[in-house]
Design goal:
Elements (H helix, E strand, L loop, with lengths): L19 H30 L3 H13 L4 H11 L3 H29 L28 H16 L4 H17 L5 H23 L4 H4 L14
Helix pairs in contact: 2-6, 3-4, 4-5, 4-7, 5-6, 5-7, 6-7
Protein name: Phosphatase PAP2 family protein
Keywords: Cell membrane, Hydrolase, Membrane, Transmembrane, Transmembrane helix
InterPro entries: PAP2/HPO (IPR000326), PAP2/HPO_sf (IPR036938)
């Protein structure tokens, strides 16, 4: 038995190209995305439903401190007064924040336009509340910038990699804890932050500014004695 054909002799029915198979692929992708959204929502709800009165105030303050990258700016200022190499790390770190912030706010949020979580519906305790941003939820800009700064500074100044990485992770979690982001927003922000740091590090490596480029330059060989 063959599939029906139309008047032009083209095959129809379930084996027709671009119909059933295409719909099957689209349906499979939609199902996967739906499952991921379900997991994302379940994780958000689990965090919201877990009482953590000891952590609530600290994480709320941390989330607020990371607004507009104030935390990274303060750390960069401290690094700038600690010597040549920390100063270069601060410059590259702030460059990473600038690149990542632009990517998150001018591209990511405008392209995806994911709605913010329903904090009241999830019954997030008011003790955790920070102002709910008006921008789209995906990706988390706070996380993206914190991870970008930590990654870039950590490459230039390895001793700072672990503490700054831990701080960036805490900033990301604080955005879920305070109810303003889904975990998936934070994960996407972390990926974007790593990409932004890589871009800033590549730009610094090619920079014509000696103080920045010298982070990557090999040590100079001692000059040969004359005579």
């Amino acid at each position: 038995m063959t599939d029906p054909t139309d008047t032009a002799g083209k095959t129809g029915g379930p084996l027709a190209p671009g119909t059933a198979r295409g719909r099957s692929r689209d349906g499979g992708l939609s199902a996967v995305l739906g499952d991921l959204r379900a997991v994302d929502g379940a994780l958000y709800a689990a965090v919201a439903a877990t009482p953590t009165p000891t952590l609530d105030r600290a994480l709320r303050r941390l989330s607020h401190a990371a607004d507009h990258s104030k935390l990274s700016l303060g750390i960069a200022a401290a690094l700038a007064s600690a010597g040549a190499r920390p100063r270069r790390a601060a410059v590259v770190g702030l460059g990473a924040v600038a690149v990542t912030s632009a990517a998150a706010n001018l591209l990511g949020k405008r392209l995806v336009r994911r709605a913010r979580p329903d904090r009241e519906g999830a019954r997030v305790t008011v003790d955790r509340y920070v102002p709910m941003p008006a921008s789209a939820s995906f990706p988390s800009g706070h996380t993206a910038c914190a991870v970008a700064f930590a990654t870039a500074v950590g490459v230039v100044l390895p001793v700072a990699a672990v503490p700054l990485g831990a701080l960036a992770g805490a900033v990301g979690y604080s955005r879920v804890h305070t109810g303003v982001h889904y975990p998936g927003d934070v994960a996407a922000g972390a990926v974007l932050g790593i990409a932004g740091a890589a871009a800033a590090l590549a730009a610094a490596a090619a920079s014509p500014v000696p103080g920045v480029r010298s982070v990557y330059a090999p040590p100079r060989a001692p000059a040969a004695p004359h005579g």
